Each structure stands twice: as C-alpha cells, then as structure tokens.
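Invent a record, attention on tokens:
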Amino acid sequence: MHADHGHVPEEYRRYLGWKFLIIAVAGLALLLALVLSLGLGAAKVPVADVLASLTGLGASPRVDAIVRGIRLPQALAAVVAGGGLAVAGAVMQAILRNPLGSPFTLGISHAAAFGAAFSVMVLGSGLMTSGQRAVTIVEPYVTTLAAFVASLGASAVIIAISRLRGARPETMVLTGVALGALFTAATMFLQYFATDVQLAAMVFWTFGDTARASWSELGMMTATTAPCFLYFWAKSWDYNAMDAGDETARGLGVRVERERMVGMFLASLVTAVLIAFLGIIGFVGLVIPHMFRRVIGADHRFLLPASLVGGALLLLISDTAARLALKPHLLPVSVLTAFLGAPTFLYLIIRGRRP
C-alpha cells in the first residue's frame, strides 16, 4: 500500500472497513447474546424485565435477584474468560509461529489440573456433602491458588528452558508438550491413591464452570485480562513482523527474543488466572483465532480484537446452552466447548489449508 500524496487509497479504506465491520457485527452479536443469556434458564425472564433490571428502572426484587445477583456475574465471567483465552491462544500462535499454540498444547491446563488435584488430596480442599452438589470444594481459594501456582510454574519452566536455548519457538512447543505429559502423569498418580471423595473432587474441579466466579473473582479476572490485551494489541505490528520470520522481524527492528518471552509470560498469566478460577475450558484458545484468521486475515491489529470478541461470544453461547440443555441441572460448559471446538477444528483440517 502506498500513500498518494498523503491520501489513503480507497482500496485500503475498503480493506480496513471490512475488518472493522466484522468486529462490529461480532460485538453487536455479543451484546445481544448477553441480554438473551440473562433471560434464559430454569426461570425465564422477559427481555424487557432484563433491561429494566440492568438499567435499574423498576424491575421486581425477584427479577433483580435472578438477573443481577445470579446470572450477570456468570455471564460476564464467560465473556471475560472466553475473550481472554482466545486472545492468549492467538498470541501464543503468533510468537511460537505454530498453529497448535494454546494453553492445552503447552501443558498449562494440565499443570492447573495437577495443582487442583494436589490441593484436594494433600491440603484437603475437597469434601463430599449432601447438598445440591454431591462434591464441594470446601476451600476454593486454596484450590485456586494451588492451580494458579502450578500453571504459572509450568510457564516459568517453559520460559527458563527457552532462555537457555535462545527462545526458539520449537523449544517452547516441545517443552510444553513434555510438561503436559509430566503433569498428566502426576495427576493420574494422585488419583490412583485418592479416596472416592477425593477422586470425585479432582474430577469435579476439571469441569470448567463459569458459575464459580463471584464479583470479586470476576474483578480479578478482568484486572488481569484487560491490561494484557492492551499490551498485546500495542504489539500487533511486532507480531505481524514475527509472522514473516525471525530474521525479517529483526531486520525491521523487533527484539524478537524479548517479545517472545514477554508475550509468552503474559499469555500464560492470563490463562493461569482464568483456569484457576473457572477450571479447564478447552478449545476456545485454539479454535477461535483460526476461525477469525480465515475471515479477517492474519493482521494482528484486527485478529486480536476479533478473537477477544469471538471468544467471548462462543463461551457465552456455550454457557447459556449448558444451562438450558439439562435444566434445572447444569451441564459443564467445558463439555460444550469441546463438542463445538473439536468438529470445527476437524473441519479446518479437512478443508486442506493450514488451520
């Protein structure tokens, strides 16, 4: 693209306008899905009452309790988690120059599951009760902290080994795969010696569930995800240059190793916080960047915000469907994201192009 005496060519304006339009349409779909999700569930609430409750314009106490007290934090948790995981996946794929880059393939999710299992068995944070749920995590913050420490520890090992080997993408991927296998084996080791109650609590934690987040957890998730996204977005040009190869990026003035290390650390931090609070939610970080890369292109100035909105939309729709599928019982949202994500990824493979 060349500027014509300081004027932006019309063709480039249309190129940008199409991408802005896609992001805007996805954003409107997200707002519509958010309003609908607040009204759907075991107790249906009309859209007018949902809007009245959100704006404080005369909704009944019952509607306020359902919409603002129960469903709103859960829906917003789905929005923040879906957006954060999708952006983390897009950044990992960019800095690793590997289409399989995601918290799953790098072993971060496996490390979080091990941390939670360790907390349940060694620290005694799981218990069988006779309430609505047969298994309850009696010390949720202990379990969350253990999952967070384990997942962040896995990221630290990846970064440390990568520094020794020169921060090459293949080193990060291979280290992540090895750590994933190691933490999976360690979790199975704990499960083998666990009691029935402890085993049930370990499995229960691995089911991703947005209902675990209250307003305080939602605040911490947002406070971590928002500034990291702004940093990633500010580095969009650097990621575009790294897509063309390390030597090309260095020739354009990008400090490749530094950007790879910082990007990996922040993407891992976002993933660790979200997984620690909600449990394992797979495929969002892997599939969403690939879907929007096909529609909007690989320019990270647009791919990152599109992944943010698309991931939020997918997880919000999955969370709403999980509430409706077996109501009044709740289906783990991670089950639906896997059902949606796996066929989509297979479709991308069958299309015969690089996903």
